[in-house]
């Protein structure tokens, strides 16, 4: 069992995958909260915070694109700098960066935010109520 936990701790994909699974779960939970409790809670929420679906889709689409762009530029810039640094000073610099837990968490937060925004965008729809 100890070997398995050490093997899991060494894998880069485990932390971002955990953050991504958490993002999927939160997106589904908030979708059902919004679906079932929005009518009961709408009298307590200020009207300025309640928007229409088209505006929400525009905002969430922009946020998804921004998070993906931010992730790409952040990690590609850092890796270019570290590659240049490791070629001139220490070849272990890039390996230390890749195996740093903080790097894994930052990547997990970026990916989790992107997945949350994208799934929330997919869950947005108009709810038509029929009044008689």
From TrEMBL:
Keywords tagged on the record: Membrane, Transmembrane, Transmembrane helix
Name of the featured protein: DUF2254 domain-containing protein
InterPro entries hit by this protein: DUF2254_membrane
Lineage top rank: taxon: Bacteria
Transmembrane segments: 12-33, 59-85, 106-128
């Amino acid at each position: 069992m100890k070997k398995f936990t050490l093997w899991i701790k060494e894998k880069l994909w485990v932390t971002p995958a955990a953050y991504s699974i958490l993002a999927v779960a939160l997106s589904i939970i908030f979708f059902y909260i919004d679906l079932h409790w929005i009518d009961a809670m709408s009298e307590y929420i200020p009207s300025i915070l309640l928007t229409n679906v088209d505006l929400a889709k525009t905002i969430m689409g922009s946020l998804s694109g921004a998070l993906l762009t931010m992730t790409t530029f952040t990690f590609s810039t850092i890796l270019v700098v570290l590659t240049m640094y490791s070629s001139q000073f220490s070849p272990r610099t890039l390996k230390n960066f890749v195996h740093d837990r903080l790097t894994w968490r930052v990547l997990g937060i970026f990916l989790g935010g992107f997945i949350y925004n994208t799934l929330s965008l997919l869950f947005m729809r108009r709810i038509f109520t029929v009044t008689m």
